[in-house]
Every structure is written in structure tokens, then in C-alpha cells.
Amino acid sequence: MNIHQFSAGFQLGDAISQEMLEIKRLLSKEGYHGKIFAENVFSYDRKYAEKLTKANIKPNDVLVYHHSIHSEVLNFVLKFPNRKILIYHNVTPEDFFSGYDLKFSYLLRKGREDLEIIRDQFHHSFAVSNFNLAELKEIGFKHVRLLPLHLNFQKWKDVPKDPKSKSFTQPSFLFVGRIAPNKRQDDLIRFARTWKSKMGNQFSMRMLGFCNPNQQSYMDELNFMIHHLDLTEEVKIISYVDERMLKKIYSESNIFLSMSEHEGFCVPLMEAIFFHLPVVAFAAGAVPETLDQSGILFESKDFESLVPLVDSIFKDSDFRNSIIYSQNLRLNEYLESTSILPLLEVAKP
After folding, report:
1. What burial class does residue 295 get, using C-beta atoms within 10 Å of its C-beta: 0-12 exposed, 13-18 middle, 19+ buried?
2. How far apart are CA 75 and CA 333, in angstroms?
3. What domains, with CATH codes, occur in the chain?
4. Which positions fall inside the Glycosyl transferase family domain (predicted)?
5. pLDDT in tens, 224-244
């Protein structure tokens, strides 16, 4: 029996792609074979995933479908009578993109509609967070279960264990995530402008993430803001890096700041915790659940009030250490909660 995984796209730095790779690794340890297929796969990622057209499905194969947007992948999977399992990563509300990318907005709307088809035709369903689980239950999924994301930090084995190894003398803000309207990099820039006006220019902010070429107008808007608000020296957008460079950037940064207004989980929050970065995040979507009483959450984008709070993280070492300590507890608790067994239970005939 093969357990194949499917998604709309595969890109090595993407959270869903990382999850598929980790599931494949864990299944292999249990003696199961299977491949990863996607409609869109960059040529340099094809050693990890294959184009959908390459899939050769046999009668006993199990099909695991990771859903986040409409694509032809769902129609392909539905053609087969095989056991079908959903892993739901959430569909971003279309409204975030309607002013930037009408096609993408349409695919998100269709992705929401696809859930009703999946509900009626799939054998089993999982969600990667309780936030996502609640959405599925609201539209009538009966036996959906939680399957926490499998995070693999083995690739960063030599990260210092002692959080005191990190310097907090000069603020180095970081956000990791797609350059996209729901991630609200524009609000990060507004925060940077408020910080500069109150605290001076001795800081940096890096926003790291891939931008869909069809959403270039949002990137253009961000670049205009950076220039217009006199932040070209302090704020940088970095479009793509490999794992080695990602590790370097996490290691060099000393606070993770998120303004995102929709997250189904948000893996970079956990990555930041792993690298001992205090996390300050807008309390939207699954973010409060992911942090679970750790980090600093804020519910209003009042930057005039947020700046002194963030500044206290740099100036008060006891406050900072308490944040990092609670974050480490959360990360350890989360890593202990993950297991491939729930998936194996429903995959077996």
C-alpha cells in the first residue's frame, strides 16, 4: 500500500510543502512508501515532488490531499475510488486579494466551495489546528480530527541552546511569510515608521517571503511605502532564500513581529521560538492557539502604544527572558503532541 500526498503546489520553503515532506519521512520510517504530487512544482523542487500528471494510482493506494486553495488536484483525486484523506490547512478569505489579484481571489472562493465536495466524498478528514477544525465542523464535517503539523528542526541541529547567546543591543525585527495582503507587511512598514519616529534609526526590519508574480502590485505598494516613508536604509524585503540563509537571518534577528490578519497555524512563529526570538504578534486566526499563552499578543494595531511595549523587551532582560522561557515551554509541549499515528489509523484498510 502506497500513501501518496497531493497539493495544489509545492515549493520547498512553503509550510504545506514542508509538512508533506515530514509526513513522507515519518511514513517511510513506518514502512510505507508514497510520493508527493502537485499541479505546480518549480523545476528545482522536482527532486522532492512530481507534477500531478506523473501520478500512477493503484487500487490499494491511499490518497492524502492537503487543501488550501482550488486547483485541478482535487478533481484528479476525486476520479479514483481509493481511500481519500483530507488534511486542511485553511483557505484564506478571498477579500484580502480582491484588490490585487482577481484570479487568486476566485481560486480562494472556489477553494471554500470545494470543502463541501470534500465533506461528502472523502473518507476521513484532519485539520492542522483547532481554528481550522472549527471551520470544518461549522460547514458540516462530522468526524474531523486534529492532526498537528509535524515540524522538523533537525535541519538546524547546531542552533545554540542558550537564548543568552543572542544580542539584544540593537533591534533587528523579522517577519517570515509570503508577501501577501493577508500577511499585512504594509502594517509592518507602518510600525517601522512609528518606531523610527520615536526611537531613532538604529534598527533593522527584514520581511522574508515569496511573492506570487500575479500579486506584484502589492509588492510595488510595499516598496513605495518604504521609499515614501524614508525607510530604505532600515526596512528590506528579501524575496527568497535557501535553508542555510534562512537560518542565518533567524540567528541574526532578535524579535519576530507579525501583523498577519489570517493564519491557519503560522509555522514561522514556531521557527522564531526555536531561534530564541521573542514573538510579538497580532492576535488573528490561529495565532493565539499556536502561541498558547506564550509570546506577546496584541489585539489593536495602535503602534503608538505598541512601540514602548516592544522597546521594553529590549530594555528589560527579566521581561525578555520570561517571554523566551514561556515560548520554549510551548514549543516543547507542541513537539510532544505531534504524531503520525492518527493518519496511519485511518489509512489502514
Report:
1. buried
2. 38
3. 3-150 (3.40.50.2000), 155-335 (3.40.50.2000)
4. 169-325
5. 999 999 999 999 999 877 888
